[in-house]
Design goal:
The complex is a heterodimer of chains A (540) and B (498).
Chain A: E1 2-6, H1 15-29, E2 34-38, H2 45-51, E3 59-61, H3 62-67, E4 89-94, E5 99-104, E6 107-114, E7 125-131, E8 137-144, E9 148-155, E10 161-167, E11 173-181, E12 187-195, E13 201-204, H4 207-221, E14 230-233, E15 251-255, H5 277-281, E16 288-291, H6 294-304, E17 309-312, E18 337-341, H7 350-360, E19 368-372, H8 378-394, E20 400-403, H9 409-415, E21 418-421, H10 430-437, E22 441-445, H11 451-454, E23 461-464, H12 469-481, H13 483-496, H14 502-522
Parallel strand pairs in A: 1-2, 1-14, 2-3, 14-15, 15-16, 16-17, 18-19, 18-21, 19-20, 21-22, 22-23
Antiparallel strand pairs in A: 4-5, 5-6, 6-7, 7-8, 8-9, 9-10, 10-11, 11-12, 12-13
Helix pairs in contact in A: 7-8, 7-12
Chain B: E1 4-9, H1 18-32, E2 36-41, H2 48-54, E3 62-64, H3 65-69, E4 94-99, E5 102-107, E6 110-117, E7 125-131, E8 137-144, E9 148-155, E10 161-167, E11 173-178, E12 189-195, E13 198-202, H4 205-217, E14 223-227, H5 233-237, E15 242-246, H6 270-274, E16 282-285, H7 288-297, E17 303-305, E18 324-328, H8 337-350, E19 355-359, H9 365-377, E20 384-387, H10 392-401, E21 404-406, H11 416-423, E22 428-431, H12 436-440, E23 447-450, H13 455-467, H14 469-483, H15 488-496
Parallel strand pairs in B: 1-2, 1-14, 2-3, 14-15, 15-16, 16-17, 18-19, 18-21, 19-20, 21-22, 22-23
Antiparallel strand pairs in B: 4-5, 5-6, 6-7, 7-8, 8-9, 9-10, 10-11, 11-12, 12-13
Helix pairs in contact in B: 8-13, 11-14
The chains are: A alpha/beta (540), B alpha/beta (498).
C-alpha cells in the first residue's frame, strides 16, 4: 500500500494538500492503490475530501482507524435523535448560536450545537453538552459529520476537561487521553491509551507514541512480502521520528515540498528549513527523498551526498483532457493583461511585481494587473501596505485590481497574456504551472524551487535575477513590444507544460515505485525475520 | 401457589455481618425446601461469583443489579490468566511479577500499569491500574472474577474517581456512572445506555435499584420480597407485589429500651416505623420477644417473628479443648470487647492457661489498636488470640475446639454465634440482654445470662463452668436440644405462612 502522509485537510489548504490530491487522482487513474493518511482528528475530514472527489476508502485517519470508522454509512443526526435518558424535554432554539438548549421543567439537561449552514443545511448535530440531575456539565460529545459520536470530553467538577475518549462506531472506548497537573501546576495531557478490538491495551506518554503504534499497526495490516508498504512524508512532523522505529520493514520517503534550505537563494549553505531539519539530518535512515524539481534534487545531492535514493517527481499534474482543448492565441486575449494568483503575503513580494509594471507602463500604457488571493494580514498588514505604497508611487490605481477569490481560475488564465511572480522562494508553484498550461507567458525572479524550472528563460518566458524588478520591467516591454515573440513564448508555454502531463508525471512515479519494489524484494525481504507466532500461547 | 421469593440486600461480601449470613442461610433453607428464591443485591461486586462459592451458594442463587444490566447473570467462570491474556502484548511489554497478588507491566524500564491478581486465584486478572508518566493513576479496569473486563473507572485529575463505564460480556458499554460532586466519590448520575433501545438517567443508585426491581420483579405475580436492608426500604417500597421488611437488629439505640415508648429508634429504621411501613405487608423480626414489643408500641404494623437463622443440623463434639473460649463476630465496639478482655484477665487468675480466640474482622483500625494495647497491658498475649475472619471449615474448626462461646454485647436481635454455639452443643454465656440471648438461653440449662456489665460475675461463672465437667456436660446436651427449636423444618413452616 502507498501512504501519503499529512496532518489534516480543511476548507482552505496549502500547496502540499493540492499536490497530494493531484497525486491521488493520478494513482487512482493508474490503478495503483494508495491512502491519504491524516494524523489530526477532524470531524469534517471526509466531508472536505469527498468534495474533492476523494473516496472514503482512499482516506486513512489515525482516529478513524482506531474507531473503525474509515468507511461508514453516513447518516444525518438531528437534535431529536439525541437521547438524554430523561423524558418531557423542552427545546429552546438559539438560531444565532446554532444550538438548542434542552430543559426538563426548569432544569437544564443539555445543549445541542449543530453544524453551521455552510457545512449542512439540515442542522446536523455537531456537539452535545450533557448535564446531570444536579446541574453539572459532565460530558461533551463531538459528532463526526458522518453521524456518529467521535470524541467525548469528560469534565471535572470544577469544569475542566479531565479525560478525552474516542469511541468506536459501536460506542466502545478505543483511544483515551488524560489531563493531570505537571510540575508547574498546569493541567496538561499526561498520558494516552489505546484499546484494540480484541482487548489489548497499550499505554503511551504522548500522542506521538500513539502515532507510532498506529504506523506499526497499519504496516502490519498491509504487510506484503511481494510489495512494500511505501510511506511518503508530505508533512514530516510526527512522522519522521516514528517511521524510523517501525517493527517491520517498510519503504519510507521524504517528500520535499519546499526549499530544504532556510534561504532558498543560498541552498548550499544557509541554515536548514526548520520543517525538514530533523528528517534531513536523518536522511539516510529513510529509503528515498523526492523533490519536485531537478534543480532541488541536484542541490540536495550536492549538499548532503545522501545514500537515500533521490527522485524528481513534479507535484503538479495537468489532466489529459486539458491537452485536447483549443489553444487561445495571444491576439484573442486582452492586450497587456498580467495575472497572478497567490496568497497576498509578505514572502510573495507582489509590490515588486507592481513596481515592474509601473516602470513598463510608461512604454506600454495598456498594461494591467489582476491579483487573486486571500490577503495575509500578518505583521500588521505589511503585504498590503507595501502594495498600496507601490500603487500610489506609480499611480496604478486604475490598472491594478485585487480580488480575494476567483471562481473560475482557468477563465482568467485564458484571458491573461503574462503570469508574473516575484516570490522570495517557492516549493513548486502549481499556480504558475497551471497558468502556463493555459498559454500564459511566465515571468519570474530566478528563485528556487519551481519558478526557475517551470519558466525556461527566453523560451516560454523570462527569468530575471532575484529582486531585479527593473529588469523585469524591461522584459515586460520586450514581450509586449513584439507580437511574434509573444506568440512564440505562449506556444512554448503550452508546449512545455506537457512535462507535467499525467503520463509524464506517472512515468516519474513509476521509476520511484519500481525502485521501491526492487529494493523490497532484493534487499529488505532477503533479511526479513518476522516475529514468532508459535509456542507462546497457553499450551497446557 | 408456588411463590417466588426475592431477598433484597446491598451486597454479599467475603466478610459479612449477620445480615448477609442470615440471607444466605435463608436462601439455603428455601432451596432445600424446593422454594424458588434469590438473593437480589444492589451493589457492584466484581467477586460475587467467588463470594457465592465461598458461602456454599450457586451463582444463580444471586441476582445482582449490575450483572443484570450488564447481561452477565448467566456468564460462566473462565480463567483469564494475566500471562496468557490478550490484554498484554508481550512483544512490547514485560510482565514483572511482584508477588502472588500483583504484577507490573513495564516497558523500557517504566511502569505503565499494575495488575492486581483476582483473590483466591493463581494469576488471574483482578484489577488493572494504568499510570501516566508522572505516576498518577489515570484509569482502572475492573475485571469480574469470572474472567471478563467488567468496567473501567476513569479518575479526575485530582485522583478522585471521575466516571465509570460498565460493559457487557462482549465489551459493549451498557452503563455510565459519573462522580461530579467535588472531593466526594459518591456518584452523581447513573445512566443505562441503550437499555431496550433507550438511554435512562438516574440521580442515585437507589433510583436505579427501584427501576431494576420493577424490571426484574414488576411483572412477577408470584413475587414476595423480603428486604433485609434498611437502606433499601424506599426502592423496595415502590414495588406492587407482596413485601416484608426484615429487621435484623434491635430497633432502638439502647437495647434495654427496645420495649419502651421512650426508647430512641435507630435513625436508619425510624422512617420505616413512622411512615414507610404503610407500603409493606409487614415487618419480620427474629424473636417473639421483639415482635411483642413492636406490636405493643406500633400496633399499626403487622409484625411477626421468624428466626433469622435456621439450624440444619446439630452435633455434639466430645473432644473439646479444655479452657478454650471463643468469640466469633465483627470485632466492633458493639460487642464491648474491652469487657471481654477484662473478664479473661479475671479468669486467668484462676485458670492461668485460659485461652480466648477472638475471630472476626475489625471494622475500624483504631479499635484494633485499642484492643491490642489492652491485651498487652494486661499481659494476656498468650491468652487472647486474634484470628481473622473465617468461613466454612475453618470456622467450623473454631467451634469444634471451643469449650464455651461467649459474648459481651449489650443487645442482639438474635445472635448468629449464639445459635451456632448451641447447635454445636456448646454452652453460651453472655449478658442478660434483649432479644436473642433471653430467647434462647436459660440460666444453668444451656448457658448463663449475667447481669449486664458485671464482669466479675461473668468471670466467676466461666471459671465454674470450665472446672465442673458435670455441669458442663448437662449444659452442652441442653444446648444442642435448644437449638432444635430453630431447626430448618420448623422455620420453613413459618416462612410458608407469610
Amino acid at each position: 500500500m502507498n501512504f501519503f502522509i499529512n496532518s489534516s485537510y480543511n476548507e482552505q489548504n496549502s500547496g502540499i494538500e493540492h499536490a497530494q490530491i493531484k497525486r491521488s487522482l493520478l494513482f487512482r487513474k493508474n490503478k495503483t492503490p494508495f491512502k491519504l493518511l491524516f494524523l489530526a482528528w477532524n470531524p469534517l475530514l471526509h466531508h472536505y475530501l469527498n468534495q474533492k472527489n476523494i473516496k472514503d476508502i482512499e482516506i486513512l485517519n489515525v482516529f478513524d482507524y482506531f474507531q473503525n470508522t474509515e468507511q461508514v454509512v453516513s447518516k444525518k443526526i438531528y437534535y431529536s435523535d439525541i437521547d438524554f435518558g430523561v423524558s418531557n424535554l423542552k427545546y429552546n432554539e438559539e438560531k444565532d448560536k446554532n444550538r438548542y438548549i434542552v430543559f426538563q421543567d426548569n432544569n437544564i439537561v443539555g445543549r445541542i450545537n449543530y453544524f453551521p449552514k455552510k457545512i449542512s443545511n439540515d442542522k446536523q448535530v455537531k456537539s452535545v453538552e450533557y448535564f446531570d440531575g444536579f446541574g453539572n456539565l459532565y460530558r461533551v460529545d463531538f459528532y463526526d459529520l458522518r453521524g456518529f459520536v467521535s470524541l467525548v470530553q469528560w469534565y471535572t467538577p470544577d469544569n475542566k476537561i479531565g479525560t478525552e475518549v474516542w469511541y468506536s462506531i459501536d460506542g466502545r472506548p478505543v483511544v483515551e487521553t488524560y489531563h493531570r497537573k505537571n510540575a508547574l501546576g498546569e493541567l496538561k495531557k499526561s498520558g494516552w491509551k489505546t484499546i484494540s478490538p480484541n482487548g489489548t491495551v497499550k499505554i503511551f506518554d504522548t500522542l506521538s507514541d500513539v502515532f507510532l503504534q498506529f504506523f506499526n499497526e497499519i504496516n502490519d495490516k498491509y504487510f506484503d512480502k511481494s510489495e512494500p508498504n511505501i510511506f511518503i512524508m508530505d508533512r514530516s512532523d510526527d512522522v519522521e521520528e516514528q517511521l524510523q522505529l517501525l517493527n517491520q520493514p517498510a519503504f519510507t520517503a521524504l517528500h520535499l515540498h519546499n526549499s530544504h534550505a532556510g534561504d532558498a537563494q543560498k541552498p548550499d549553505t544557509s541554515i536548514l528549513n526548520n520543517n525538514y531539519e530533523y528528517s534531513l539530518n536523518d536522511i539516510n535512515r529513510y529509503d528515498a527523498v523526492i523533490s519536485a524539481t531537478h534543480k532541488q534534487t541536484d542541490d540536495v545531492i550536492k549538499r548532503f551526498h545522501p545514500l537515500a535514493k533521490t527522485f524528481t517527481i513534479p507535484v503538479g499534474v495537468i489532466p489529459d483532457n486539458h491537452f485536447n482543448k483549443k489553444e487561445i492565441p495571444m491576439n484573442e486575449r486582452k492586450f497587456g493583461q498580467i495575472l497572478v494568483t497567490a496568497r497576498i503575503a509578505p514572502e510573495k513580494q507582489l509590490d515588486q511585481l507592481i513596481r515592474a509594471i509601473g516602470i513598463a507602463k510608461k512604454i506600454i500604457p495598456e498594461l494591467s494587473l489582476d491579483m487573486y488571493g486571500y490577503i495575509d494580514h500578518s505583521n500588521n498588514d505589511i503585504a498590503m501596505k507595501k502594495i498600496n505604497k507601490a500603487i500610489d508611487e506609480y499611480n496604478l490605481k486604475d490598472c491594478v485590481h485585487i480580488h480575494s477569490y476567483v471562481q473560475n481560475v482557468a477563465k482568467v488564465q485564458k484571458e491573461a497574456q503574462v503570469y508574473g511572480l516575484t516570490s522570495v522562494m517557492e516549493g513548486f508553484n502549481l499556480a504558475l504551472m497551471e497558468a502556463m498550461s493555459q498559454g500564459d507567458i511566465g515571468l519570474t525572479y530566478d528563485v528556487n524551487y519551481g519558478p526557475n524550472e517551470l519558466v525556461k528563460d527566453q523560451i516560454n518566458g523570462y527569468v530575471v535575477d532575484y529582486g531585479d524588478y527593473k529588469t523585469m520591467a524591461q522584459r515586460l516591454i520586450t514581450i509586449f513590444s513584439n507580437k511574434d515573440l509573444m506568440d512564440k513564448l505562449s506556444k512554448n508555454a503550452y508546449h512545455y507544460s506537457k512535462r507535467y502531463s499525467e503520463d509524464s508525471v506517472w512515468q516519474d512515479w513509476k521509476v520511484f515505485l519500481d525502485f521501491a519494489k526492487e529494493d523490497w524484494i532484493n534487499h529488505k525481504m532477503k533479511t526479513y525475520k518476522p516475529d514468532i507466532t508459535n509456542g507462546i500461547q497457553k499450551l497446557d | 401457589m408456588q411463590q417466588n421469593y426475592y431477598f433484597t440486600n446491598e451486597n454479599i461480601f467475603s466478610f459479612n455481618s449477620g445480615t448477609e449470613f442470615s440471607a444466605i442461610n435463608r436462601q439455603k433453607l428455601f432451596k432445600k425446601n424446593q422454594m424458588k428464591s434469590w438473593i437480589v443485591t444492589r451493589n457492584y461486586n466484581q467477586n460475587l461469583y467467588f463470594t457465592a462459592q465461598q458461602h456454599g451458594l450457586e451463582y444463580d442463587d444471586l441476582i445482582n443489579m449490575y450483572d443484570y444490566f450488564q447481561n452477565a447473570v448467566d456468564v460462566k467462570k473462565h480463567h483469564e490468566y494475566l500471562r496468557y491474556s490478550k490484554l498484554i502484548d508481550k512483544h512490547e511489554y514485560k510482565i514483572v511479577g511482584v508477588d502472588n497478588n500483583s504484577s507490573l507491566i513495564k516497558r523500557h524500564g517504566r511502569t505503565l500499569a499494575k495488575v492486581e491478581i483476582a483473590p483466591q486465584t493463581v494469576g488471574e486478572i483482578g484489577n488493572v491500574l494504568y499510570y501516566d508518566q508522572f505516576g498518577n493513576i489515570t484509569s482502572k479496569d475492573v475485571w469480574d472474577v469470572r474472567g471478563f473486563k467488567s468496567k473501567t473507572e476513569y479518575m479526575h485529575p485530582d485522583g478522585h474517581i471521575g466516571h465509570e463505564i460498565l460493559y457487557d460480556y462482549d465489551g459493549q458499554p451498557v452503563m455510565e456512572i459519573t462522580h461530579m460532586f467535588k472531593n466526594n466519590d459518591n456518584p452523581s448520575m447513573f445512566k443505562l445506555l441503550n437499555y431496550k433501545g433507550k438511554n435512562l438517567r438516574f440521580n442515585d443508585e437507589n433510583e436505579l435499584f427501584a427501576f431494576f426491581l420493577k424490571e426484574l420483579i414488576g411483572k412477577d405475580h408470584k413475587a414476595i420480597v423480603i428486604n433485609d436492608r434498611p437502606s433499601l426500604i424506599a426502592p423496595v417500597a415502590q414495588l406492587n407485589c407482596k413485601k416484608y421488611q426484615y429487621l435484623h437488629s434491635i430497633q432502638t439505640t439502647d437495647a434495654e429500651m427496645a420495649g419502651n415508648p421512650k426508647g430512641t429508634l435507630f435513625p436508619a429504621f425510624a422512617p420505616f416505623f413512622t411512615n414507610d411501613f404503610q407500603y409493606y405487608d409487614g415487618l419480620i423480626v427474629p424473636t417473639p420477644g421483639q415482635a411483642k414489643d413492636i406490636n405493643n408500641l406500633f400496633p399499626n404494623i403487622n409484625t411477626r417473628s421468624i428466626s433469622d437463622i435456621a439450624v440444619f443440623n446439630t452435633k455434639l463434639v466430645d473432644q473439646k479443648v479444655d479452657n478454650h473460649l471463643l468469640f466469633l463476630g465483627r470485632l466492633s465496639p458493639d460487642h464491648n470487647l474491652e469487657q471481654m478482655i477484662k473478664i479473661v484477665g479475671l479468669v486467668k487468675e484462676e485458670i492461668p492457661e485460659i485461652k480466648l480466640n477472638l475471630v472476626g474482622y475489625f471494622d475500624n483500625p483504631d479499635y484494633r489498636e485499642k484492643l491490642k494495647k489492652m491485651v498487652k497491658d494486661l499481659a494476656l498475649e498468650k491468652n487472647i488470640i486474634f484470628k481473622p475472619y473465617l468461613v466454612g471449615q475453618a470456622k467450623q474448626e473454631q467451634f469444634d475446639n471451643a469449650k464455651l462461646v461467649i459474648d459481651t454485647s449489650f443487645g442482639e436481635a438474635m445472635g448468629m454465634t449464639m445459635v451456632e454455639a448451641l447447635s454445636n452443643g456448646i454452652p453460651f454465656v453472655s449478658y442478660d440482654v434483649n432479644y436473642g440471648p433471653r430467647f434462647m438461653i436459660n440460666n444453668n440449662y444451656n448457658g448463663f445470662l449475667i447481669n449486664q456489665g458485671d464482669t466479675k460475675a461473668f468471670a466467676e461463672c466461666l471459671v465454674k463452668l470450665l472446672k465442673d465437667d458435670k455441669i458442663y456436660q448437662k449444659l452442652s446436651n441442653n444446648a444442642s436440644l435448644t437449638s432444635k427449636k430453630l431447626l430448618d423444618k420448623l422455620i420453613i413452616k413459618q416462612w410458608e405462612k407469610i
